[in-house]
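Priority: medium. Attachment 1 of 2:
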């Protein structure tokens, strides 16, 4: 009989591209992972992995087995959720991955409320700029507080359920000594020095794409994903920044914010979990706390609440 843990290791190696990377994410030694994969190979009697340069890739048999493994692992999680739903109690642990720009206004209030309502639940929070939906699919995290820009193509891994939380516009941030706080059309930024996130990031892509749609290529004088640095450069009058509203403390001195006129750049903040037919009480509690925190923002632009499987 196939070992469920070995199937999960095969899935992780396929996603990470190497045994070493998979071992790091599983908190195991590379030798231990290799031994378990060798045992899985013996169980099925055919090679599942092959060298591919400095990485490894699935053989045809490995791809076939992984397709079945995905269904097996999903069925196991479905069974666990069904039992948890019958118990009707929130569990002891959960892992949340969130963007740095969401911590102050959403994550911190949500975790505070969650601790008061469910003191037995210990939530580990991973704050990272990198997209974590792949980690969600691999089971490394339980809930992702992520973002999706409305004017960019939607991409989500298979088997992910998305709960919209908040439509969050980017604001134009300048030094407070500017006398004009009217809405700003994107095309007006064509003559300004901008500080923007790297083009490889979601926000960087969204800004570049929106500027191109407005008919210009932005003068990116400064490039950083650090929002504190972006605000500091704007405060000093060295650059104009485009920053999500929830990432800006309304009491921040020395800056002026203005909405984008005509064609705003909107990001949808969402909570994502692995899709199951039966809702898990623990992840439901985390998502409820995040949604409550988002709704408590007096400036929030809330999309219709729904839970979509992709």
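Attachment 2 of 2:
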């Amino acid at each position: 009989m196939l070992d469920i843990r070995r199937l999960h290791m095969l899935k992780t190696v396929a996603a990470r591209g190497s045994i070493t990377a998979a071992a790091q994410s599983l908190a195991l030694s590379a030798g231990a992972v290799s031994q378990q994969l060798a045992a899985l190979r013996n169980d099925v009697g055919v090679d599942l992995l092959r060298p591919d340069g400095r990485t490894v890739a699935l053989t045809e048999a490995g791809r076939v087995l992984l397709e079945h493994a995905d269904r097996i692992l999903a069925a196991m999680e479905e069974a666990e959720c069904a039992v948890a739903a019958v118990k009707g109690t929130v569990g002891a642990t959960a892992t949340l991955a969130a963007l740095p720009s969401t911590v102050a206004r959403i994550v911190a209030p949500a975790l505070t409320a969650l601790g008061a309502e469910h003191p037995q639940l210990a939530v580990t929070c991973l704050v990272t700029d990198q997209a974590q939906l792949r980690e969600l699919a691999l089971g490394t995290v339980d809930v992702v507080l992520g973002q999706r820009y409305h004017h960019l193509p939607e991409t989500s891994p298979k088997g992910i359920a998305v709960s919209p939380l908040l439509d969050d516009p980017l604001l134009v941030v300048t030094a407070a000594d500017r006398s004009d706080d009217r809405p700003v059309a994107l095309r007006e930024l064509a003559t300004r020095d901008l500080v923007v996130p790297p083009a490889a990031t979601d926000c960087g892509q969204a800004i570049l794409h929106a500027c191109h749609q407005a008919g210009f290529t932005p003068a990116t004088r400064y490039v950083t994903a650090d929002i504190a640095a972006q605000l500091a450069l704007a405060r000093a009058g060295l650059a104009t920044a485009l920053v999500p509203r929830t990432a800006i403390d309304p009491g921040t001195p020395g800056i002026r914010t203005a909405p984008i006129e005509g064609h705003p750049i909107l990001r949808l903040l969402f909570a994502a979990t692995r899709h199951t037919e039966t809702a898990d009480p623990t992840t439901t509690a985390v998502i409820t706390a995040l949604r409550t925190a988002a709704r408590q923002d007096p400036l929030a632009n809330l999309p219709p609440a729904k839970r979509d499987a992709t």
